[in-house]
Amino acid sequence: MFYASVIGGEVANFAAYAFAPAVLVTPLGAMSIIVSAVLAHFILSEKLHIFGVVGCILCVVGSTGIVMHAPKERDIHSVKEIWHLASEPGFIVYVCIVVVLVLVLIFYFAPRGGRKQMLVYIGICSLMGSITVMCVKAVAIALKLSLSGNNQFKYGQTWFFVIVVIACCLVQLNYLNKALDKFNTAVVSPVYYVMFTIFTIIASMIMFKEWDSQSISDIVTALCGFVTILCGTFILHKTKDLGDNMAAIPTQVPAIITTQIEIPKIDVCLSPTGDCDSPTSTSKLHSRPSTPP
After folding, report:
1. Which residues cross the membrane (predicted)?
2. What is the DSSP code string of 192-252?
3. pLDDT exceeds cutoff 90 at 22
């Protein structure tokens, strides 16, 4: 059941790139966090703190803003059109920058500070992820066109995109596992989501130019929705264990153990003549036993 749900989710995510722009599909990945939190609350009896509810609401509000103001999907009739977009100077420069940064992170920073700096591993995954999404979208569109009767797998460009997807996914899985192994998952997941989404939006804007036909108000509203999703994601991850921790706090205050110390009596002679044998000439001062607070 678990593996079937995972595979089904990935297939649906893959299909979404064939029918919707990447700037819409990628940020909406935060909805999986909401579903996980809600199912864990009802099925696994995990406590969802009030801040977790606030985080879910923020993710829903941000997702709604992105959906309402997202750019329209570009009409593509062949993989060669995607290849033409990918071979434009702007996207080639972006790919070269990404490749150089990834190589520097892998061969210089990762051996020296990868175990101490979380951003090294996450940076590799996020940069490679932006290229992966562009190639996944190309393969998804090719598959959609092929199923409609226009075979796209006869072109070498389609298989080139498939090879790039496989290579990038292997690199991402390797360094994401290293990040999860060395650092706290509650910190890795939101940071990776933020960096991956940002680089994917940048790559999509450069390659597909999806926001060229959008007005300034639509772009600003979509960006505000994205920031709202980021806030909700961080709140969810930061407070996901807060409910269990609050439940573990004891509600009864333990009884304070008090001890009573008995102070011996002290006889003090106050007679000016020095005659302390008479009971009237002696004032006995007794210290009262201490009482517990």
Report:
1. 14-43, 50-71, 91-111, 118-143, 155-175, 187-207, 219-236
2. HHHHHHHHHHHHHHHHT-TTTT--HHHHHHHHHHHHHHHHHHHHHHHSTTHHHHHHTS-SS
3. no
